[in-house]
Write a structure and sequence with these properties.
Layout: H1 10-63, E1 68-70, E2 76-78, E3 81-82, H2 84-98, E4 101-106, E5 109-113, H3 131-139, E6 144-151, E7 154-164, E8 170-179, H4 180-231, H5 241-244, H6 249-377
Antiparallel strand pairs: 1-2, 2-3, 4-5, 4-8, 6-7, 7-8
Length: 378
């Protein structure tokens, strides 16, 4: 037993193409959006870090007067004030509020920072910045942004701003940064949100497509069933009014189908009438055919008689021919005998003429003899 293969209807195929197109479009849009969103978000992070780093550098410079230097106890000094502890507390508070890591460098060394060591033994102080950062900021006096920093084994987005004394000499740096994992986690959430939104939209489109397919296909099946019923000879079939009332192409098809059913119904009705008349004519023709068949039978019998007569006549002609042949042979024989008789007659004529001459001679001689005898007698 063969399994019937499932086939999509026309509307289902159109809806499937539309859904696939929307899915592809959504996938492309989500992909492009994620890439652009990633770049935009990274740019925003850098701008945020820049703003916070510049603001922090200005705030640190304005909070206390005097130059930056390192005290005998190794603490960071600003003017005559030990700012090590104060700045640590302030930066920790800012970190708790913003999630941004802060670091104050004196030279290339971290003196105040919110970044923890990887082993959990405390804050990452008394460590040095990379050579690239030192060159860009401390030596060249530039601000420096990076999206691929590696600090204590962690990836960071960071921004460095130089710190200067009153004479303009660069003595340190102010750093703000975000852990890349936090940035990527946020990007992942945003990407997931976009993806879920796209999936939600696709699901709605699929649901609407399924509803349209079910509705339109159902109505088209109704039209098809009407045509099938009409093809089967059912003239009282019809098209649903709600299909005809539609203002789209399906409504046009429904209206055309209803008109077709009406016209075909009329044609079939006339055809039935013609069929009835044809049946009656056929019956009459059958009767005429019977009469013709009887006449044909009679003609056939007559033809058989004629055929038999012709055969008998042919036999008579054959016998007459044979007798004629005999007569012809007899005539030929008679002709031959006549020819012989003619020869004999000619011979007899010659003989008769000889005999006649002999008789005439004999008569003449007899007459002479008679005359002599008579003379002698007298």
């Amino acid at each position: 037993m063969k399994t019937k293969k499932f086939k999509l209807g026309l509307i289902a195929k159109i809806m499937a193409v539309a859904v696939i197109s929307i899915i592809i479009t959504a996938a492309v849009l989500v992909s492009v959006s994620v890439m652009r969103l990633g770049r935009t978000y990274e740019d925003l992070i850098v701008e945020e870090l820049k703003a916070t780093a510049v603001h922090l550098a200005e705030q640190l410079s304005d909070s206390y007067s005097g130059d930056w230097w390192i005290g005998n106890d190794g603490n960071l000094m600003k003017g005559g004030k030990n700012v090590q502890t104060v700045f640590e507390e302030e930066l920790d508070a800012l970190y708790q509020k913003t999630g941004i890591d802060y670091t104050i460098f004196y030279g290339d060394t971290r003196y105040v920072t919110t970044i923890q060591k990887k082993d959990g033994s405390g804050k990452l102080v008394a460590t040095q910045a990379s050579d690239t950062v030192v060159k860009e900021v401390l030596q060249d006096g530039n601000e420096y942004a990076a999206t691929d920093l590696n600090i204590e084994g962690y990836d960071y987005f960071g921004y460095y701003v130089p710190l200067s004394n009153a004479d303009g000499s660069i003595v340190g740096m102010c750093f703000t940064g975000r852990n890349s994992e936090d940035v990527h986690a946020t990007l992942f959430k945003m990407t997931l949100s976009l993806l879920l939104t796209a999936l939600f939209i696709v699901a709605i489109v699929i649901a609407i497509s399924a509803w349209i397919n079910r509705t339109v296909s159902g109505e088209m099946h109704g039209v098809s069933e009407s045509l099938t019923s009409l093809a089967g000879g059912t003239l009282d079939t019809g098209v649903d009014d709600k299909i005809v009332r539609r203002s789209d192409e399906l409504g046009v098809i429904g209206h055309s189908t209803r008109d077709l059913i009406s016209r075909i119904g009329s044609i079939i009705g006339k055809t039935k009438e013609m069929s009835t008349e044809l049946t009656e004519s056929g019956a009459e023709l059958a009767r005429s055919s019977d009469d013709a068949s009887q006449a044909a039978t009679q003609i056939s019998a007559a033809v058989d008689g004629i055929s038999k007569g012709a055969v008998s006549q042919a036999d008579s002609i054959r016998v007459a021919k044979d007798e004629t042949d005999v007569i012809r042979e007899s005539v030929e024989l008679i002709s031959e005998n006549v020819s012989l008789l003619d020869g004999s007659s000619e011979k007899m004529r010659v003989d008769c003429e000889g005999t006649r001459d002999a008789l005439n001679t004999l008569i003449s001689q007899s007459k002479i003899v008679f005359e002599r005898k008579l003379i002698e007698f007298l």
